[in-house]
Structure formats: structure tokens, C-alpha cells
């Protein structure tokens, strides 16, 4: 070794992240005893805080990442506050349940500590969404943003944490990794203190979450096909497509990637799209756009989340500055064209099939690149709607509505979500829009089938306990910093310490 340095300098960012996980573990043990009134009070406070600063964080996210539209990100941020809470307000994941008919008592068991990855495309909306899910399910959460969105994400997490603590939540319930990196993420994902991983991001990160050794809920990419049937109101369908594809510059994975119709209807769709604000590309424009969007190393990431006019300028295409989306035309849907792949930018490929059977065949194969995700159907032919939905390997088909907002539950009655489960088709553990119910499991106390069970004699008061409302003088600005110690009473603190010591006995080797 000679004079080689023997000092091993610790990784401060990794140490800080591990400390956050440890604090979250303590917070989760305390929070899992809160009753439903306390949970809803904290969720309401966080929703209010997030709603009020939605425009602020929308502008910050666009400025930091260069992706999307401030106005649209504001909408998405706000949808993950009061709208999300309203949807799940009556879903009780806190109280014990008694089924007297089947002699079963069910006790809710929150996961514990959630490690939640947030993508660069929807950074603050995902922070809001996953924090709300954790609160409603009585879990602690450690958020890990994309490095390109770490500043706005971390500040948003601190803002929500302060609001939660002011409403009575334990300190450490909501935290954020300040300086994320691949080695750090891999280390934390494999920690035995992490109870479940919520992975939103690229395929590589989702696969890493599933192979970490910890339970994971992962979601995959989309490549939504929108079929415009001749029975559709074509002008209404085109308006939906353009509004959806231009929303936040098409940064959502639920956005339409391909517009598919029949040859008999092609002219009508082309005209309607142009009227709705689309630039229909001729053959030269289509070639230029394809060449710009795809290079030797795959999709050109500089186009992600940029406006149609910006992309057109880079590709050498002359368009009206007010153009909302670009529509390259590939007349034959059978060919494996690069333009039939997912495009997280306002570019919607238009193609036409000779008949409905060919359309379904093409849609089925194109959707395999976003297997388990979403598709859209525009039209009034219910038989074709069912046939299309049955054939295409997706778990959401949005009808006569924008797919970007519809599949995410913001223009339909699907659960509002920024985690679109792709199920078995997409190699995911969940095939529906992820909600707080996926973060709670239930212990079932089952009595003998044919015997009488006196279920009224079971005391369930210890399952959750009332928590006092904080004094009115306590505000978010006055709450302890995220590094402060949770305000736990002495008996509770003693119980937690004993549990902690029991858990360490087998580790000191």
C-alpha cells in the first residue's frame, strides 16, 4: 500500500439519505396509530398547502427542467391536491373492519416506509401525488427526484412536510433526497428499512426497483393509439386529440402517440386536425421530423416537452407560430416506422387502415411498445369499441375524451393518478391506476365458519388512536425543521425505543 491514504471519506449525500430513511421509519411507527380524523386533517392541510403554491412550483419546474407549460403544470399540481383528496375521502384505510356475516375481522397494516422515485417530466405533480397517497394510507415517504428536477422537488417536499407537521403529523413523515444519484438510489432501494418502492421513470429504473429485493410498484412507458372510427364526430375527436397532445407539451405518458383511422375517413380526420390547430406534414416535412426526432442513439431527448413551433424550427419545417401539434403522415400502418413509437412531445403520427380488422391488428402491435398502458377510441359504434378494447393489450381505453387527462383520471371517473399501472402485459405488479389502497394490507382474523363468534366483544380501540388538533398558534412557518425530533409522548417514545432495540439484536455481528 505504501503511502496510500487509508482514510475512507464517507459519502455525505448517501449518509444523509440513510438518515432520512431512519427518521421515516420512526415517523411511520408513530403515524400508523393515528385515527381517521387525524389522517384526514393532515391530508387536508397538505392539499391546501400544495394547491396554494401550485403555480409557484409549476413555474420553477419548467425553469429548472425546460419541459412543459407552466399553465398546464399548474393544473396538474392542483389536481393532485383537493381533487385527489376528494376522490379518496370516503375510502377508509384506517379503521378496523368487522364482517359479521363471514366471521372475519380485518386490521389495516400500512406498508411503513415508502421510497418514491419522481420523474423529470412531472416532478412536482408526482411529489404532491405520492405524498398524498402516503398520508392517506398512514405511511412515511422518502421522495427521490430526478437530478434535473431536484431543486423544485425538494422544496415542494419541504413545503408539504411543514404543512403536515403543523397539522399534527410526526416530523420526518415526508422527506426528500437532496442530491440523488444512481449509486445512492440503488443503495436506498435495497435498504431493509424500505418497505415498498414506488417507481415512476424509465424502464431501467423500474426494473432496478423490482430487482432490489424490496416490494415495488412500478409503471412502464406508454404508446397510446387513438382510433377515430367513421362513426365519430370528427371535429370533436380532432379537438380532443389536439388538446390532449398539446397539454403540457405532451409530457404525460398517457398522451396519444398515434392517430389511427380508416382510409375512407382519412380526409375528414386530416381536415379536422388542421382546423383544430395541427400542422399536417407533407412527405418532406415528415422525413425531416423523423430524422430530427431519431438519431443513432434513439429518440432525441432535447425535443421532450418542447412546443410544436420549437420542434418545427429545429427540424427545418415552416409552421404557423400558433401551431399546437405536428402531425407527420405515414399512410401505410403495416410498416415498422420510427414515428409509430412513443413521443413525449407534441408530435402525433397519423395513419390509416384499409378496414377495421387491419386497424385492430395494427393497434394491437403498436400498443405492445406501451403494453398495459392506455388507448383511446373516438366513435359511437359500441361493437367496434368492445372489439378494439378486447384486442389491444392495454388496461385503459378512453372514449371520446382526451387520453392524456382521461387515462390519468382527470377527464374521466378513473382514479386520479400519476402512476398508471401496466399490469402483467407491461410487466408490472399493478394493472390499475395506483392509489392509497395499494399501500395498505389487511390482517384478517377468521373464525370457524359454522360456529357463532362474539365479534362485538372484540376491543378494536387500539387499532387507531385520536390525536389532538394542534394549537391554532402553530403554523407551518413555526413547525420544527425536517431534522427535528417527532413530538411523541414519553410512553410512546419508550415503546418505540424498545421495538428498535429488539430489531437490532440480530444485526450486531
From TrEMBL:
Annotated TM spans: none
GO molecular function: oxidoreductase activity, acting on the aldehyde or oxo group of donors, NAD or NADP as acceptor
Key words of the record: Oxidoreductase
Aldehyde dehydrogenase domain sequence ranges: 6-269
Superkingdom of origin organism: Bacteria
UniProt biased composition (Polar residues): 475-488
Matching InterPro entries: Ald_DH/histidinol_DH, Ald_DH_C, Ald_DH_N, Aldehyde_DH_dom
Annotated coiled-coil segments of the chain: none
Disordered as annotated region, ranges: 469-491
Matches recorded under PANTHER family: ALDEHYDE DEHYDROGENASE-RELATED
Protein name: Aldehyde dehydrogenase domain-containing protein
